[in-house]
Design a protein that fits this description.
With about 160 residues, the protein is an alpha/beta fold. The chain has a single domain, classed as Maf protein (Alpha-Beta Complex). It has a five-stranded mixed sheet, sandwiched between helices. It is globular and about 40 Å long. Strand 4 and strand 5 form a beta hairpin. The protein contains six helices and five strands, in the order H-E-H-E-H-H-H-E-E-E-H.
């Protein structure tokens, strides 16, 4: 996984592009991987861990979108990636939301249990790249690792195209 993020930082530097993240269920795992790479300060503009709905709203996610689609949705992931890109004035924004092996009493849509929604916003092209990741492990840390690795793969695909 470290090699993927090393390549991401290298490609961003080469293209003179920046990235920002707004993470929920990954708890800052994506930005941790980025900042583990020397020189990442040249490409990382900002990161926020918005674990609660209230924090997402404070960062610009519309409460109405959360209410309509649930916090566990691609629509909210899109808002997260877009809003963090705007807030941080970055070329790419990464938004991650989902439920990892838990029951969430504040967000009762249990049909979305173990489904993670990822959105990467490309500001230059005004384009969203979306994916959803179904996790299966009982151990939360393994699920987070799987998601963070998949996000790395998706970022590499985008940056190489």
């Amino acid at each position: 996984m470290l090699e993927e993020y090393r390549e991401i930082v290298k490609l961003l530097k080469k293209a003179k592009k920046t990235i920002a993240t707004m993470e929920s269920c990954t708890g800052g795992g994506v930005v941790n991987c980025i900042t583990n790479i020397e020189g990442s300060s040249e490409v990382l503009t900002f990161s926020a861990v918005t674990y609660s709905n209230e924090a997402k709203v404070k960062m610009g996610v519309e409460k109405e979108v959360i209410d309509q689609y649930s916090v566990y949705s691609s629509e909210v992931a899109d808002q997260m990636s877009y809003q963090i890109s705007q807030f941080a004035d970055s070329d790419y924004g990464v938004g991650v939301t989902g439920m990892l092996n838990c029951i969430d009493p504040k967000n009762c849509n249990q049909k979305k249990r173990n489904m993670i929604y990822v959105s990467i916003y490309d500001r230059e092209n005004n384009q969203f790249y979306r994916t959803s990741i179904q996790v299966h492990e009982f151990v939360r840390e393994k699920n987070k690792e799987t998601v963070i690795q998949e996000i790395g793969k998706q970022l590499l695909t985008i940056l190489r195209s």
